[in-house]
Amino acid sequence: MAGRMVGNPMVDDEVEFGPFTLKAGKRTLTRDGSPVALGSRAMDILVCLTSNAGRLLTNAEIIRHAWPDTFVDETNLRVHISAIRRALGDTKRESVYVTNVPGRGYTFLAEVRRKARGASEVALPGPNQVPPTERRANATLFGRAAVLERLSEQLLGARLLTIVGPGGIGKSTVARAVLGRSFAEVIWVDLAELSSGELISTEVASKLDIPPRNDDIDAAIAEVLEGRDIVIVLDSCEHVVDEAAVFVESILSRTESPRFLATSREPLRSAGEWVHRLSPLDLPETGSSVAEAMESPAVQLFVNRAAACRGGYKLSDEDLSHVVELCQQVDGIALAIELAAARMDTMSAKALSTSLKDSFRLLSRGRRTALLRHQTLRATLDWSYFVLTPEEQRAIQRLSIFRGWFLPDAASAVLDDPDEVVESLVSKSLMVAEALSDTTRYRLLDTTRFYAVEKLVESGHYSSVMSRLAEYLSELFEISEQELYSASTEDWSLDFEQHVSSLRLALDWAFELGGDQILGVRLTVASLPLLFRLSLLDECFDWVTKAIAYLDAHPDLDEQRRMKLYAALGWPQMRSTEVPEKGVAAWTAALRIAERLGDVDYQLRAIWAIWVDAINRAEPQLGLQFAHDFATVAAESNDPVDKVVAKRIMGATLHWLGRHSQSRALLEEMIVEYDALPTGQTTRFQFDQRITAKIILARDLWVLGEGDRALVEAQSSVEYAISIGHELSLSNVLAEAACPLALLEGRFDLAKKYIALLKDHTKSLSLDVWNCYARCYEAEILLEEGKPEDCLVELRRSMSVLDHAGFNLFRTYFQSVEVRALAALTKFAEANQVIDSALTHCESSGERWCKPELLRIKGQLLYQGLANPPSAVVDKWFEAAEAEAKSQSAAAWQSRIDAYRSLSRPDDQFGAEAGVIKGVENKRDRPQNRSFQ
Where does 428-536 have alpha helices with state H? Predict the structure, then answer.
């Protein structure tokens, strides 16, 4: 496959954009001649972007350029892109230089002016190509060339391939190399960071950007994976091997295209599994010459790492026997060889070999028999540990509580004097360091971490260190609360996602016997914004439940946090069709606590949520009460946005009550005030408030007879939601404005486009409610296409899901479509029951927005369903429809009534063979007759 062309500036290549000058060869960035600080990796990415200005570069392409020899996930890329944007002055609302296409990649927007003595273009590999740098990296996997070829072939033929071997043998390294050779789309899931196998589905869903759902999360994962040439890597399965096997079988049974590559110390023993047992590196024979020894992959690895450590090293006759003996002692295990070679900066090969033998004797307590491989690795770790100073030993013990990457400030939280000791551990290859744009992050190798955790537990200081970790994370998340809520993940000042694995560990400790539960409560509340933003709600609610149970058992201990925890329990009701009945109860509990505490913020959050529930259940008269309550509390708020939001809530309520002119005036006033506010979008109420107001405004405009303008407003809101990348707001505007208004206007081609966008968007995001709405609108299209039976099947299936979950916002409108389909099938008795049910609901709930249409359909149903309908009976319903439309100033509904009433005069002969009136197509001069619509 041909690669995309990506600029590769020569050493002296110089480009200018805006006030900036970028010199790739000298790796400098200046603004009007003044230096601009930018990290090395960020500089690589900026060079790549400017070399391809105006082109969309995918995330994978940029990663290949910036990390050619390393496997990283997209989190790393987002961190460096954010650093570039800060350096260039891009803001969240206005991107002058770098823009993101959500889910795809980035484009450099500004015009680039080049000053170069010479520049060349090289092909960046396409999805199935391997960069030359990647091939060179593969070559450093000593003795693995044949293995890589075989595994590559096996992965093409197997849907589950497991690389099995002891710790430290290089399973993950080989897996990365295999995937770098020929597989384009890869999701890497590090299971070593999980404390429980029950979290595997959640972790994979998070990597795939699948929002949480309360039903079958594996089904959501399968939907996203199906049809994609993708490999899911499950790395380090050994501690959750049973759950990993169940998860893989679940996904494979539901799909045909995705494949799995697993690494584990034992097979998953899952159906269809291909197992490859990774052997140790080949060893040299005792008495080999230097040339013969250098043919051994084990010796090649040792010499390569020793050379890197010492700045150059060649195997000599003097060192030969000691190096051969050392490689034999560690039995060719790659990690053990690397740990040993890292000591070559301070020790000779002879001293290394002797020290290692002493370490084995200590471990084996005098046994002369050969050790098992995992014992050999442990001996290597013992040896590495025992040569550390007491301060270094304490440090590596404490740092072992971090799962995955951690930053210097995290190290400072658990260490008394971290600066020198951290760098010392890095230099001794017991920790990995990676330079970021403005700091350095660290990680312990897993084997080292497991070993050090054991030492920490043995020391008796595990709980005290975990307490320090929990305190650090709590403070970090508390300080960053507003940023976590309001900023996009791309604009976060820190990569907060990297703390999730340590957060899990700290919470598990806090709520277990011997932990600190009140500290666990504090950490749970502090982490809520992060867990919501990362869609890790399943495990979040587990911790929330534990925290609430503790506080409920200790009345008045911490009412502020108990309030926030109850609010967290209420969040699932906002978009899932599997809504727990305790959702509103949780918000009500939060409201009562907030009222006692005088907490205006959480009173507004809770009232808003309860109002949303009333509106979703199509109870606008009840919603009006909560809208008044919200306005009353908002008047006491110091945030001017709250008073504007109160107008938006009231305007929406008036629309559903059929008071469209009042609603329109209030919403137009609200939008002007909102745009004038100096503060930005509030995220406490989940949606972009301007878009949400425009949704109802567009609906008001249509009802009031301004159909063309209504569609323009809906389209502009769709475009705006896409531009700001706000997924929930986009789904909302499509479901509540764009789709229904296109249908009501008779613009069926446009409606199909909106419905397709809504279905595709909500399916990939598991937004169940809006996906059901999309299917209901699709059912109406089926009716317009003359397929009433198909319409009924799809409509009733989706309405049943919505009814079960209490989402009845459009129930009466969907019932009007159901009645039309039943009448088309001449099922008039059943149709009458449905329309009467809809009208009864309107009377009891106060819902009136589409009541004129329901009354008109009732009259049309009688006209079509009775052989000789008395004109007085038919006129009664049309007159009631007209009266209702007039009271609402509903010109659009009135035009429908006029069109249909003119066709239902008693002296007219009903013609079944005539065409179909579609919506308000009388405005568009299309063929009309009196068939039921």
Answer: 446-459, 462-479, 481-486, 500-510, 517-533
HSE at residue 527, side-chain half, CA atoms within 13 A, is: 33
Calpha distance 710→705 (Å, rounded): 9
- Domain-by-domain residue ranges, the chain? 4-124, 140-277, 290-380, 390-460, 466-535, 850-933
CATH dotted code for 390-460: 1.10.10.10
Q: Where are the alpha helices (DSSP H) in 190-311?
A: 200-207, 217-225, 241-254, 290-293, 297-310
858-862, 870-874, 920-924, range with greatest mean pLDDT: 858-862
- Say if residues 278 and 163 touch (Cβ distance below 8 Å): yes
Query: Residue 34: is it exposed, middle or buried by C-beta count within 10 angstroms (0-12/13-18/19+)?
Result: exposed
The tokens describing 153, both together, are 């072939």
Which residues 6+ apart lie within 8 Å of 501 measured at CB? 193, 194, 402, 403, 404
**Hey, CA dihedral for 90, 91, 92, 95, is it positive or negative?**
negative
Expressed in percent and rounded to 5, the helix, strand and coil fractions of the chain are 60, 10, 30
Q: Is the dihedral of CA 442, 447, 452, 454 positive or negative?
A: positive
* Better pLDDT: 657 or 142: 657
At 523, list the tokens.
């950490």
Binning pLDDT at 50, 70 and 90, where does residue 908 land? very low
State residue 131's pLDDT score: 31
pLDDT per residue as tens digits for the range 188-236: 998 877 778 888 998 898 888 887 665 688 998 998 999 888 999 999 8
Yes or no: say if 57 and 105 are a contact pair by the CB < 8 Å rule: yes
Separation of alpha carbons 569 and 4, rounded Å? 47
Write the CA distances from 2 to 129, 384, 469, 825, integer angstroms.
9, 48, 49, 56
Confidence of residue 2 (pLDDT cuts 50, 70, 90): very low
Our CA angle for 828, 832, 836, nearest 5°, is: 170
The CA-CA-CA angle for residues 795, 535, 497, to 5°, reads 160
- Which strands form 274-277's sheet, in the order they lie side by side? 185-190, 230-235, 259-264, 160-164, 274-277
The topology under which CATH files domain 140-277 is: Rossmann fold (3.40.50)
Residue pair 652/696 in contact (Cβ under 8 Å)? The answer is: yes
Task: Taking residues 871-898, report their average pLDDT.
Answer: 91
Q: Tell me if 4-124 shares its fold with 390-460.
A: yes
Q: Are 768 and 577 in contact (CB under 8 A)?
A: yes
**Measuring CA to CA, how many Å separate 110 from each of 17, 51, 719?**
6, 12, 22
Residue 779 forms beta bridges with which residues? Answer: none
Contact partners, residue 678, CB within 8 Å, separation at least 6: none
Strands 259-264 and 431-435: unpaired
Residues in Cβ contact with 720 at an 8 Å cutoff, skipping those fewer than 6 apart:
688, 690, 691
CB 859 within 8 A of CB 881: yes
Grouping H, G, I as helix, E, B as strand and the rest as coil, residue 443 is strand
The CATH code that applies to domain 4-124 is: 1.10.10.10
Q: Which of 33-37, 566-570, 745-749 has the highest mean pLDDT?
A: 745-749
Rg from Cα positions in the chain: 33
